[in-house]
Design brief:
Keywords: Signal. Helices cover 39% and strands 20% of the residues. The chain is built from 13 helices and 18 strands.
Length: 445
């Protein structure tokens, strides 16, 4: 891993010089607090922050069937926390404060997540982070809405890095919830842009996890295909229990029997890994259009069978290209050099940096003040410009559709997890091309 370590120093300098956060136009953008926010992410590394730590609670499944996904989230968020602290922490009116990551294990259960949320409230932790289940996210939003109404002196802000149910920033939007991932409709729109150009696809099979997000993927696939490729026939639309299927061979057999040219799936974690592994073992010659085909373990599970067959969509990937992007990736790999830890998710560390900028602009770590500062905030680290739409608290950012290939082929400079396989960009959408309308009716305190 020497090349990552050699690149680390230059990478950190490139990142520190490239990051710029600023608010939407208005008086706040020119305030001293706003200028402090800019310095906190774009200036030279500051001294060690000495103020009381600002605790951020991660409520996620750290044990159980998706423990590997929880561990990956922790690494990415910890990287963001360390980056902010290395730059001098969060600049508030009373000095610089470090972030402190507090990990609370939900065991993949909604009930346990709510228990951990109450524990965080008892400890007066004002910032809650979760994302690996839209069902859990919806429950947390409901509980936080009640908590903040009941105890205005002990409010919490929910930072969502992966729960992609569109309703969370549409009909079910909340002032206390901010989503830093593209929602399922935005991701599906990008995927179908690629399917639209692939005239070999005539039949599609939909296979998804049986919970709110999986049903969203299914309905969005049907509606988006009907708009962009009405000639495509949906030959299967099936749901399976989340986290409980150990052998996907029967599902692969159904896909083969249907004659599908492509599969669309929102599966993640072990449900995706086991699905693509079964496809490889049965020699299924079908394209997989996925939300998370580049995720933990998937490229290695697919092997050669995935080359040219697996398509994924993400807000960023290691082969997005450009010196600043490469430098950021080098810094992540220097921090987490083990091959099995090679799963950087850019939006998670950027969520932490954006939060720090909002706090510095507000001059306070109070969740209500920070929520107002987050509305309309813009963040640009030099290679990934984004903004938080105030209307619904949905982050607007670039999206990439990518296809799996062997490392070393054009466009695949880096592989995933030492597997020898990586992804190359087939469609890069700038942030303004990913915008979708919202029906959110935001109720502000």
């Amino acid at each position: 891993m020497t090349k990552w370590q050699q690149a680390a120093a230059a990478a950190l300098v490139a990142i520190s010089m490239g990051g710029v956060a600023h608010a939407a136009a208005g008086a706040a953008a020119n305030s001293p607090a706003s200028e402090a926010a800019n310095r906190s992410v774009s200036g030279k590394p500051g001294g060690k922050p000495t103020g009381t730590p600002i605790q951020l609670a991660l409520i996620e499944g750290m044990s159980g069937p998706f423990a590997n996904a929880g561990a990956a989230v922790e690494r990415n968020l910890r990287f963001g926390v360390e980056q902010v602290n290395a730059q001098g922490g969060v600049k508030l009116a009373d000095g610089a404060h470090p972030f402190e990551l507090v990990v609370l294990d939900s065991k993949g259960s909604t009930e346990e997540a709510l228990t951990q949320l109450r524990a965080a409230a008892d400890r007066h932790i004002g910032y809650i982070m979760q994302g690996n289940s839209s069902a859990v996210a919806a429950a947390l939003i409901g509980a936080i809405d009640k908590q903040n109404s009941r105890e205005p002196g002990n409010r919490e802000l929910f930072l969502n890095y992966s729960a992609d149910d569109p309703a969370l920033t549409n009909a079910s939007c909340s002032f206390w919830h901010f989503r830093f991932d593209a929602h399922a409709g935005m991701r599906m729109d990008a995927l179908v842009d690629v399917i639209q150009r692939d005239k070999a696809v005539k039949k599609v099979y939909l296979l998804n996890q049986d919970y709110s997000f999986g049903h969203d993927v299914s309905s969005l696939a049907r509606s988006t295909l009907a708009t962009k490729r009405p000639d495509i026939a949906v030959v299967g639309d099936e749901f399976h229990p989340i986290g409980r299927v150990k052998d996907f061979a029967p599902y692969i057999a159904k896909i083969r029997a249907s004659g599908a040219d492509a599969v669309i799936t929102g599966n993640w974690g072990n449900d995706l890994t086991l699905l693509v592994k079964a496809a490889r073992e049965q020699g299924l010659d079908t394209k997989f259009y996925t939300f998370y085909g580049n995720s933990l373990g998937a490229p290695a599970a697919l092997g050669d069978a995935g080359v040219g067959h697996v398509i994924a969509v993400a807000d960023w990937h290691p082969n997005a290209g450009g010196a600043a992007s490469d430098a950021w990736y080098a810094a992540f790999r220097a921090r987490f050099p083990a091959a099995q830890d090679d799963y950087p998710v850019l939006r998670m560390p950027l969520m932490i940096e954006t939060l720090a900028a909002a706090m510095s602009r507000a001059g306070s770590a109070d969740p209500t003040a920070v929520a107002r500062a987050l509305e309309g905030i813009r963040f640009d680290n030099g290679f990934h410009a984004s903004w938080m739409r105030a209307d619904d608290h949905q982050l607007i950012q670039p999206l990439y559709v990518m296809q799996m290939d062997k490392a070393g082929t054009p466009g695949v400079h880096f592989d995933n997890e030492g597997s020898g396989y990586g992804f190359r960009t087939v469609l890069a959408l700038p942030a303004d091309r990913t915008v979708l309308p919202t029906v959110c009716k935001m109720q502000r305190p």
